[in-house]
Amino acid sequence: MARKWMDYKTEAWVQWCPGCGDFGILASIHRALAELDIDPRRLVVVGGIGCSSRSVYYIRGSNVHVIHGRSIPVASGIKLSNPELEVVVVGGDGDLLGIGGGHLVSLGRRNIDLTILLFDNAVYGLTKGQAGPTLPVGVKTKALPFPNVQDKVNPLLLAYAAGYTFIARGYAYHVNQLKEIIKAAIEHRGSAFVDILQPCPTYNDLMTKEWYEERVYYLSEEDPLWNPRIKDPEDYLKLPKIVEKMMEFGDRIPLGIFYQDLTKTTLEDRFEMQMPGYRKAPPALRPISVNGRIPVHPFKVFKENLIET
Amino acid sequence: MRVLVDISFIVGGPQGGGIESSGQIALKAFVVKGYNVLGTREYHSNIMGAHSYFHVRVTSGPARALRIPVDLVVALDAESVLTHINDVRKGGYLIYDLDSTGVDATRIASMEPSLKSRLRRLFASMNLQPTVGSAVKVLEERGVKTVGLPLKDMLKKVSDTLGTPIASIAKAVNVMGLTAGLYTQGVSLQYVNKAIEAQFGKRPKVLAPNVTAARVAFEFMEQNIGEFKELPEGPHRGRVRMIASGNEVVAMAKIVGGLTFETFYPITPASDEAFYIEANKYLELGELSRKLELDKIPVVVLQTEDEISAINMAIGAAAAGARAATSTSGPGFSLMNEAISMAVEMEVPVVITFWMRAGPSTGIATRTGQQDLLHAIFSGHGDTPKIVLASGDHVEAFYDAVKAFNWAEEFQTPVVHLLDKYLASTITVLDEWDLDPHKVGISRGLRVESPPEGYMRYKISDSGISAFAPLGSATMIFSSLEHDEHGFASEDPVDREAMVEKRLRKFETIAKSIPEEEKLALHGDPSAKVTLVSFGSTKQAILSAMEELERDGVRVRFLQLRVLSPFPSKTVTDILGDDPGIVISVEANSTGQLAFLIRAHTGIEVKHLIQKLNARPLYDVEVVYGVKRILSEGARRVVVSGGA
Fold first, then answer.
1. Are A127 and A97 in contact (CB under 8 A)?
2. What is the DSSP string of A6-55?
């Protein structure tokens, strides 16, 4: 029997403010998981610190709630230890682009088969509205005593430069479209990055629902032939257009799948190539002893260190 | 009665010039000859050019600790002659490059300015220029036998013999120097050649110049120094032995001890451990290979972007069920602090192999110290008890590395395995029985692969331990927030108190479960009135010093702390007793961290300290000196300063 989205709900009280964009994202995730029929026991949602990271308590799975900014390395350790698991990272722009920015970049270099869902509201909500890494310079949200003195980072270009093989942007209140993007991200083999624009009705009084909805449009709506897939080197000709679209963020904000490179191996693939048997006997599941004993004497294994006297 | 052989020597030269290989060849020649050895590499944080040396002790008995002054200094460049001017004993040998005689210390670019000043002052006081020639003169006056090798001519001879250009065999000067040095200690060519082969393998291209160089040097010594007296073969002949550094021994232990996932960020002196694991990550592992039907068994090894990622990845892997570890040194461990706190809160088994080096800050990255004992114990914010164990030598390090994993998994806690740069880069020779895999098993604690319906990650129990189910085996939550039994975040005061108490009970369970004899060792005469206390790699220097003190009629016992957290308070109190006599803490840190810990846990004030602060290894003679000064003068604190 196929699973329904309610099967992914938990009994925990969802503690977000009324009208929070996180609700739309959570609904999209629940529905995406149900449509992909992922066994909650095989699903690992990893979150850091912030409103959005709390999603780990609201999605039924085998989940991990970690310290601020470290969800990507923890998720990487999980996935590399048991590649059969479906591992999804949830977090805000502060968690993933601010304190955890270094890890975000490094994941791109590795192309581990993980899905990163960035709940992007440009503010630090839980600590009362400080500027997030995607808040533009010069703007003054209501919690800020002075206008923001630091400029925003472009999450899509950052992900592209880092080497993510799936890059998309969604919008929190477009539950159906976002669900489809999340499904594609989860199904992608490799590191998938989804920037999800999300109003924070409590602290971000500039980038509101109205503000976003005047600006957003879908790449595939504007260009019915839009095809973000890179299947072979010939498709590299698409890259200038893709990058140009990634740079567009102002009066018009494109949504959808920007880029999907199908030519790259994952880190798991590389481990399997280097060490055949890695997937058959992954670190998390393989036996490590023979009846509780060390299986072999070091003298039988580390022969380069031996010397005859 | 067999004559006790006890030889110490130093081989010094410019870093990157083959000095490490030379030291190892010299060491291996003695191993082939049947002796025990201990050799450490002292080097600068530099790729090429700075002074580096290999310090070796050779004995027919156990090779426990390094010793200065040495019987022989092989100085392959001018800087080595001058740097080690005080390290060779009366009657010992200095082998040096004759062409370096005229070199003035002040002209040696790589030499530390402070050392130059000290040399200038030393030679000025004798109305001499600070040159190699002066150093040779001074040493001769002190009764040191000096041998200047015409290395350039000798190299030409090798080149002529082989018909290869000098430039392509220039590194052979190393072997010439050490062969000449070994000549003075009675090691003949056959052993040198075997050692060269053991070092470089049988590739003729590498072998030929070195073997020829050894012969040329040996012949030079025969012609110029006089009759060769062969050192008799040592007692350890006719078997296969292992030569390994501390880094390597720990890496081996981790691999056979069940490691499946290792992360690291490059840092001295931990990297060589990770390198060794990386090089050996895909091996045939005996019975386990047959059980898994895999010729070779993979270990995932990953270099991360920083130490924060390294520890967090290991924690993720461990939560998924891997036997996971990371290795680092002080600066990296500082970065890991927050995640260690998380591992305590989330109850995740993870091992941090911690190779201490000289701090604070980047300090001296390539030198040793014991300054991170309290750092390890108190790492992580918010009441975070964890297991900290310290190994005293290579053999202990082997078993401890496996035990660290067992304890981490049995108690679902971070375990810090404390080692240091000295052990990391010290090579020893081991026998098959030293590394007995049957001495320690592999246990994973209360682990359920298929948890029942309603599984709770943090179920309250009397022992404080809940069943561990790997991620992916049930719906669950590992939470770094305070949580309820399911793992859901909870700020409820009753939940909070229950979880704090649970973790506390778990730590009490740990304290009760680890046998006292694994937490500490009392060496020497238990009734001795003088007690040395220490932890970590000072062990063998202290044991060696005790033998010498005994010969001088000073009876000393040595309380070696092996598990520093949970601290064996009661046993330490019982051993030291109401009238502890003279208690001396031997530590390579300035604040007396072990003394602090003993006082904190037992109320007993350790009134005397022998401290090594110059970031060099502790020598046995220094312990002897320190004990004697404390006994004769009642000194509170003796700082020992040996080593170049």
1. no
2. GGG--SS---PPTT-HHHHHHHHHHHHHHHHT--GGGEEEEE-SSTGGGG
For residue B197, the chain A residue with the least C-alpha distance is A307
Give tens-digit pLDDT for A234-258: 999 999 999 999 999 999 999 999 9
Give the closest-approach CA distance of A31 to chain B in angstroms. 18
Largest CA distance in chain A: 82
Chain A: closest CA distance from residue B407 (Å): 14
- Chain A, residues 6-65, CB within 8 A of chain B, namely 12, 40-42, 44, 46, 54, 56-57, 60-65
Q: What is the span of the domain harbouring residue B94? A: 6-224
Tell me, yes or no, whether B371 and B488 share the same domain: no
Residues B481 and B373 reside in one and the same domain: no
β-partners of residue B298 are B282
pLDDT of residue B206: 86
User: Are B423 and B453 part of one and the same domain?
Assistant: no
Helices B394-411 and B246-256, interaxial angle, to 10°?
40
Chain A residues whose beta carbon lies within 8 Å of the beta carbon of residue B478:
63-65
* Cβ within 8 Å, pair A66-B475: no
- Could you tell me if B506 and B557 lie in one domain? no
Q: Please tell me whether residues B377 and B469 are part of one structural domain.
A: no
Question: Considering only alpha carbons, which residue of chain A is nearest residue B27?
Answer: A307
More confident residue, B277 or B203: B277
A227 close to B (CB below 8 A) = no
Q: Is residue B414 part of a domain?
A: yes
CA angle B58, B63, B69 (to 5 degrees): 60
Q: Annotate B618-640 with b (16+ C-beta within 10 A) or e (fewer).
A: bbbbbbbbbbeebbeeebeebeb
Does the distance separating the beta carbons of B477 and A64 come in below 8 Å? yes
Q: How many residues does chain A have?
A: 309
Task: State both tokens at B176.
Answer: 């010439």
The CA distance from A304 to B271, in Å, is 19
Residue B440 in any domain: the answer is no
* Count of alpha carbons within 13 angstroms of residue B497, beta-carbon side: 2
**Among residues 268-307 of chain A, which lie with CB inside 8 Å of chain B?**
271, 274-278, 280-281, 283-290, 292-302, 305-307
Name the domain count of chain B: 4
Q: Cβ of B472 and A64 within 8 Å?
A: no
Name residue A216's beta-bridge partners. A253
What pLDDT score was predicted for residue B577? Answer: 85
Q: Which of B469, B489, B514 is the last residue of a domain?
A: B514
Query: Is B572 strand, coil or helix?
Result: helix
Quote the strand ranges of B182-281, DSSP E: 240-245, 261-264
pLDDT at B259 over 90: yes
Grade residue B203 by pLDDT with cuts at 50, 70 and 90: confident
Nearest to A77 among B31, B289, B313 (CB): B313
